[in-house]
Write a structure and sequence with these properties.
four-stranded mixed beta sheet, 197 residues, alpha+beta
Length: 197
């Protein structure tokens, strides 16, 4: 089982602060405090370089389950950091063809992303995004149901990009716009442990 660690989104900062970062983890089954249980190394493709990062583990003395504390800039079993998927999604949303993205996402220091991988990511992202969008629209409508403020926004011609900015800011609880490359990592921390962007 994986638990997302609320840590720095920048990998260099994560590597320097990992040993000083003591996360108090409570067992999801029996609610007892978990003890350290070593770590393992994991290869991560991040921006223009591939890193070998340590991932901490915790073990419960009561029910004997072991958890991994995965950094928020990753999803389980993925080699590529979240920002690479995020940029793919942003470029697709801007109308850039999928066939042009392997050369945009690949650098000289990182492995080449195949079109097959990008098609798989696109399908997964599309499904997750549609589910999230419907849920956020329902929550937004419920939140503003007694006021006319939301309806006025749509009547005045709010476009899709403005609506998405509004939904993201409400979901993340922030007024300012998210920096590019940090959105999926921040969203991972707001979702349940079994759902990842």
């Amino acid at each position: 089982m994986k638990i997302l660690l609320d840590c720095s989104i920048r990998i260099k900062k994560y590597l320097t602060q990992l040993h000083s970062h003591e996360a108090e983890v409570v067992c999801p089954t029996c609610q007892k405090r978990m003890r350290k249980h070593g770590s393992y190394s994991r290869q991560v493709v991040y921006k223009s370089r591939t890193y070998l990062i340590p991932v901490q583990r915790r073990c419960c003395r009561g029910c004997k389950i072991t958890l991994s504390l995965l950094p928020c800039f990753l999803i389980p079993w993925a080699r590529f950091a979240n920002h690479i998927r995020e940029f793919m999604g942003r470029w697709l949303f801007q109308g850039i063809p999928l066939a042009c993205l392997p050369e945009r996402l690949t650098t000289t220091q990182t492995s080449i992303l195949s079109l097959r991988t990008l098609y798989r990511w696109k399908g997964t992202l599309k499904k997750k995004f549609q589910d999230w969008w419907v849920k956020q629209r329902a929550e937004l409508a419920h939140q503003f149901e007694e006021e006319e403020g939301l309806l006025d926004l749509y009547r005045n011609g709010m476009n899709t990009e403005q609506e998405l900015r509004l939904l993201f800011s409400l979901f993340l609880g922030e007024e300012r716009a998210m920096r590019k490359g940090h959105l999926f990592s921040r969203m991972n921390l707001r979702l349940s442990d079994t759902v990842f962007w």
